[in-house]
Specification:
The chain is elongated. Helix 7 runs antiparallel to helix 8 (265-278) and helix 18 (614-628) crosses helix 20 (653-676). It is an alpha/beta fold. The relative contact order is 0.08. Helix 15 links the parallel strand 17 and strand 18 (469-473). Strands 18-17-19-20-14-21-22-23-24 form a 9-stranded mixed β-sheet, with helices on both faces. 35% of the residues lie in helices and 19% in strands. It comes from Terrabacter lapilli. Pfam families: AAA_25. Residues 397-666 form the AAA+ ATPase domain.
Length: 677
Amino acid sequence: MTAPTLRATDQVRGPHAGRARLEEDCGPASAVASYLDAVFGESDGRAHLAVGSGQRLEDGKLRFRSWVQSSFAWPAERDLLARNVAQEAAAGADVYLCPYLMAGSGRAKGAAVERRKVHADVDGQLDLDRVDRLSGYAVASGSAGHGHVYVDLDRPVPAAHHEALCRALGRYLGDADAKISDNDLLRPPGTWNHKAAPPRAVAWRRKPTGIAWDPELLAQALGVALPSPDLPQALSTPMAAAEPVDLDTLPARVRDALALVSGDRSTDTMRVVGACHDTGLTLAQTRGVVADRADLAERLASRHDDDVLRCWLKATDSRAERTRARNDEADSLQALDGAPAAAPSPAPGTVAGTVPGAAADEDAAARTRRLFPRIDWHQLWADDTEEEWIHHPLLPARRSVVIYSPPKVGKSLVALEMAVAVSRGDMFLGYAIGARHRVLYVDFENDPRGDVRSRLQAMGYTPDDLDHLDYLSFPRLAGLDTERGSLELLEAVRVYGSQVVVIDTVSRAVDGEENSNDTWLGLYRHTLVKLKSAGIAVLRLDHTGKDETKGQRGGSAKSGDVDAIWRLTRITEERFRLECTDSRLQISTKSLHLRRHQLPRLHHTVEVLGAVSDHDAKVAHLVELCNANGLAVEANRDAVRTFAATRGIKVSGRVVQDVIRTRKGELQREFTSARDG
């Protein structure tokens, strides 16, 4: 047929516009990244990835022994997604992406966040001249002459318009298959198609131009009439029918959610759907509940998407996030629920289609060796290097250390001073660090202006002194005892090139219950073991429980993975003790007596040997306080103990006794001096 005369707007959409004209010889990683930017742009949602491995041909179709699906937050996990695609492709897998962002972790038809493009999967010879007339972009799918074509729109369209435009685009290009949905999976450039032997590259045929079409003009050019927006929503979106419900029999939580009118109908819809989801109602029943409230029903009728389904999927994703560990490496051999049925494994020694089973096994073995490298015993025996220290004795290289204390003792202050010293290669507590290290400080406790800046200024530092200290203040990380939190932190470590990570405080960095051992086992399994295997040193800060003698608060497993545990104790307002209570490596100095100085700058020093004992220092400090505040010299033990408690000082009976004796001795000396004088 004769190609219609086409007109497009000049609007350039999204961050991909500036990257549209990449070099023709860009590598796989660049091809993947440019594709992600092109199809997802500036939207927010979850990108869905599917990975098939153990490939073989059966009846002309590619079957997989393993089919694993996962999702990534866009744009927060952009680089992580691109790296996963490139790694899986390099490992010999077939990789697919949904070119539309979803509202949740489910890849359901009609659940796209928005539809700002149309696509077609061409199974015949791709006519690139026709793609150029549409100012579209195209990807060779790896089958001879076949490809995927995309055309950008300058605004989102409802599902019915999207489907009509996709069908029309397929007819215009010819030989298009039935992939016209917003949950389709397509091959991204930078990967491989293993239908043929040897595998064929999936690559750009036409790069994005940055030109976006007005949907109405594109419909005219393709010769299709779009459904009227005035049609009932049920006809324009793939929604399931609503099921009538008896409001009086609904769970109390659902009735309460319906009764609460916040003035924000979007928020109210999400709250009602979430309550229905959590109390076990079906999606159809949830639609009936939402439709029973007039203002919410009016809002839904004015929309061209399935907002109830969007909220339902978001609720599913939110409720499952804490308990579901996403398999980011896609290495599990068990297909997820809802994935295409995997073909049975070939019998030993047999060949399926044109892909030998032995070759697939060989690929799987190579992947296993890459992901789980074994120790080289000869190399280990030949390694006679001594324990490396970033700071001796507090921070060994590549290990995990805890400093804990009661609240308000000053562990964050000590940790901040050490973090800056490590980042600058300066002296700290008498130890010359020497080399500079990149430090990532993850702070869930301290206000950046009122605490962090004021402390750094008191230490005498300026912004120019802190170029190797990367400080995350109240970061919106998922719990580090979850796979998602682990991926987020590891991505920050990768981006900033961190060699040391400080977590302040660890109890605020997890989602699980603090007293549950599962929480701390999850923290180690998901995050700490990965940091250790990457050679990253970790310093984490923690609090004591009500009984300070029992160590860190929380489950006993909290201490199981660390290499050294240090307890910080206040002796006086200026004197502290750091004591190593447990370690799995040899530490020659297990007790440090610290003094905090305010002038000429805020810093800590280690007291020399032979200095006054902790007991004597506490007695002298309490005597000074008693005298300064006019406590009677005749005060008994209870009075002295009560006075100390009002100053936040915990004292033993021996300290109280020596305070009383010292004060009476001072009085006696004064009397004698006055008499003799």
